[in-house]
Amino acid sequence: MENENMIYLRDVERTYRTGEVALTVLQHLDFALPRGQWCCVFGASGSGKTTLLNVMGTLEAPDAGSVVIDGCDVSRFSRQEAARFRREKLGFVFQAYHLLPEFTVLENVALAGKLAGMPHRAAVTRAKELLAQMQLVERIDHRPSELSGGEQQRTAIARALMNRPKILLADEPTGNLDEKTGLAILQLLVDLRKREPDMSIVMITHNRDLACFADRVVTLSGGKLVEEKEKSPDGL
């Protein structure tokens, strides 16, 4: 089962403790994501969606269970091993764009490649290619404060794609955007998937209208999978 999927979680638990109070967010959770599948994860605030994404992204280790990504049991990784794995295999898109304010658009994107060991010239070339795909060629020398929300998110997506990740993890990628801009961001993701059909995508969202873009919908409640259904990708 592990080798057939890009992501495979088995009997995963995650509990947060404050003093004597324990809050179990993920409870005996099983999840499998086939290679190349786009999955939307829905659920109310506090249902465990972001924790699930963090566990998939090696940003948090589970308290119990196993997390296998692209054939590697990442739940056993050290912090250094997890960081290297994230740089090589994963791309992250967050609701808050997390761009470095002192860097230009080009520098923000190219930095991801440099941190992964890419030579400067190759990183700049790759960053320019991605920013062209994101329709940001005229903004490469601007800083984040000079961009609209949609432009900042497009920059963040370009940064996430810098190292050609096998998995894209997106946490409310349209949450800070108006409806029109959010749809434009989704169209970019749809176009991306057409260019990179083998890339797996997990998207956390509260917006039920986004389900039509996914192959599959998963709902979390209290840290457990309570609904799962297959969908046909419609796109735009």
How does this model look, in words?
The structure is a single chain. With 236 residues, this protein is an alpha/beta fold. Helix content is 31%, strand content 29%. The chain is built from six helices and ten strands, in the order βββαββαβαααβαβββ. It has helices spanning 49-56, 79-89, 105-115, 120-133, 149-160, 179-195, and strands at 5-18, 21-34, 38-42, 64-69, 72-73, 90-94, 167-171, 200-204, 216-221, 224-230. The strands form two sheets. The protein has a six-stranded mixed beta sheet. Strand 1 (5-18) and strand 2 form a beta hairpin. The longest helix is centred in the last third of the chain and has 17 residues, at 179-195. It is globular. Mean pLDDT is 89; it is low at 232-236.
**N-C termini distance:** 32 Å
Q: What is the helix content?
A: 25-40%
Output the strand order for the largest sheet: 6-7-8-3-9-10
Extended strand count? 10
- Structural shape: globular
Rg over CA atoms: 18 Å
Unreliably modeled segments: 232-236
Largest sheet descriptor: 6 strands, mixed
Strand proportion, as a percent range, falls in 25-35%
User: Can you count the helices?
Assistant: 6
Broad structural category: alpha/beta
Order of helices and strands: EEEHEEHEHHHEHEEE
* Overall residue-averaged pLDDT value: 89
Give a quick summary of the entry.
With 236 residues, this protein is α/β, with parallel strands linked by helices.
What features would you highlight for this structure?
236 residues; alpha/beta; six-stranded mixed sheet; globular; disordered C terminus
